[in-house]
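This part of the workshop introduces the protein records we will be handling. A record pairs a protein's sequence with a compact description of its fold. Comparing a sequence with its tokens is the quickest way to learn the format. The record below serves as our worked example for the rest of this section:
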Amino acid sequence: MTSNKKSINRKRKEELNRFQSKIGIRFKNPGLLDTALSHKSYVNEADKDLENNEKLEFLGDAFLGLVISDYLFNQNLYFLEGSLARIKSYVVSESALYRVGQKIEIHQYLLIGRGEEKSGGRYRKALISDSVEAFIAAYYLDTGYKQARKLVERLFHDEIIKVEQNRHEKDYKSILQELVQKRFKSIPLYSVVSTEGPEHKRKFYVKVTVKKKSYGPGTGASKKQAEQHAAGIALGTLKKMRRLRDPAIESIGEENVNKEKVSRLVKSGKRTRHSRQDA
């Protein structure tokens, strides 16, 4: 990456040092960090030949997925493959990245263009989440896998705990479909029972049918919301008849994981006997 060799002025160095101190890390090559925090809108307006953070964002997305997958595999071997994939998707989602970005206040240190600044881009969800991925990639390139993995597990600790304690935002439709396909060899069918209210403030009522038995209706301001609600109602009933195999994810309205135990495991970095050695 050509931008790693660019000169950084004193003011920018001080900003980058504050950011690193806040997180408790130190880059050997501050140029990597500066590039990770340089949005394309800033680079496009600059006179110098600089590089934006898009390549780092690409690498960060892949590295983050690997670290979270490795963690989940070694901590939760009793989960089914489909559930592991779903948990990972929650932890590495744009919303989770955005929350991490807010926690470390990455927006304060981003270099963005004047037009992007005026339009409020510094606080945009997508821009912040992309910058977090780029920052993670830069730290990986600077320090290697072991240290970068520790940083990821520390920054995403709260997001992992949310999932393991069953407090994340659930996709009930996907959970229901996976269960119904596995147990009944069919798929849930959704239908709108009725709607009410004016067009700008519509309320939908949706039922879901599983093996000729209907559940709901679920309600929502959109069909999608109502379908999610109906799926949640169906799961709440089905779990009483057939125990689901992934308690930390599929149990609806319950917390089946010992919170203190999970928190201690994540903080200590304790892994199962199947854990691979550090790279």
Notes: DSSP finds 14 helices and three strands in the chain. The chain has a mean pLDDT of 82. The longest strand covers residues 189-196. Residues 71 and 271 are 8 Å apart (CA to CA).
